[in-house]
Amino acid sequence: MAELQAMTALGARQAAVAVVGPVTITERCDVALASVAARRGRMADLARAAQAAGVPLPDAARHAGGAVYNAFWVAPEMWFVEAPFASHELIADQLKAALGDAASVTEQSDAWVIYDLTAPDLAPLLERLCNVDFPAAPDGFATRTVIEHLGCYLIRHGRGQVRIIGARSSAGSLLHALEVAAAAAW
Amino acid sequence: MIIHHPILGPRDAQEFVYLGDAALIDRPDGMTAGVEVFHDWLYNRDNPAGEHRELWYHEQGDRSWLVVTRNTVTHEITRVELARDVARSKGRSK
């Protein structure tokens, strides 16, 4: 059998790490993603199955953490679920088995690039990048927004801790935008 | 311009894509309504100076379709509803 080597979204063997001033941008290749959408009229069934499986289904514009699965809201009755890649490489199959026919599950890991941003305060960076009112947003806030013309999900874990999920095909452009804005901010 | 999304609150209009007259929801049955009615639905639009109900898509947000009631003269937005709810209240989207 062919020996295949996994590549990151940037075409490298190792996840990228960039440090610009006080900001550290870390590419996360160890997170598996899948979307979960309730089928019509099956929200109550999905809520029951998700609770039993330990999959949080947070309210609109929110992120919630669980024991293994984390999830954030993306649309009415639809969520993105995160899990450790090492144990959940087949996250879509695992969620499908856990949630049954109440939900439509789609593998998303290979469609996105994940950057974790850390700094004492990320407001000066994010106010240059997007229209999210970051200082006013609560921790656990999750939204879709536009960064440098790229549609991204932005999740606020804290004043200095943010996860940005962008299209994998634009991973390099998104990282460049983050680095340039960080260089301008500090 | 700010659109007050029913779920997400105030959002900048640049996150949205504009489609047009919300009467598009009321598609007649092309097999029974007759060609004149269907032609009217497909091609003819009112162009009111004043209140207008229109479809907006929250592309850079939660991807929901909205029915926005907007005054085309003042740009004042008086009502924003989820198109899903509007369609279902009309018996569409079974």
Report on the architecture of this protein.
The complex is a heterodimer of chains A (186) and B (94). Chain A has 4 helices and 11 strands, in the order βββαβββαββαβββα. In chain A, strand 5 and strand 6 (78-84) form a beta hairpin. In chain A, the strands form 2 sheets. Chain A has a 6-stranded antiparallel beta sheet with strand order 1-2-8-11-10-9, covered by helices on one side. Chain A has 2 domains: 17-29 and 113-185, Probable tRNA modification gtpase trme, domain 1 (Gyrase A, domain 2); 31-110, Alpha-Beta Plaits (2-Layer Sandwich), CATH 3.30.70. Helices cover 23% and strands 37% of the residues of chain A. Chain A starts with 16 loop residues before the first strand and ends with a helix. Chain A is α+β, with helices and mostly antiparallel strands. Chain A is globular, with a radius of gyration of 17 Å. Chain B has 94 residues and is α+β, with helices and mostly antiparallel strands. Chain B has helices spanning 35-43, 83-89; strands spanning 2-5, 9-12, 17-21, 51-57, 65-71, 77-82. In chain B, strands 3-4-5-6 form a 4-stranded antiparallel beta sheet. A two-stranded antiparallel sheet of chain B has the order 1-2. Chain B is globular, with a radius of gyration of 14 Å. Chain B starts with a strand and ends in a 5-residue tail after the last helix. The chains are: A alpha+beta (186), B alpha+beta (94). The interface between A and B is medium-sized, with 12 and 13 residues.
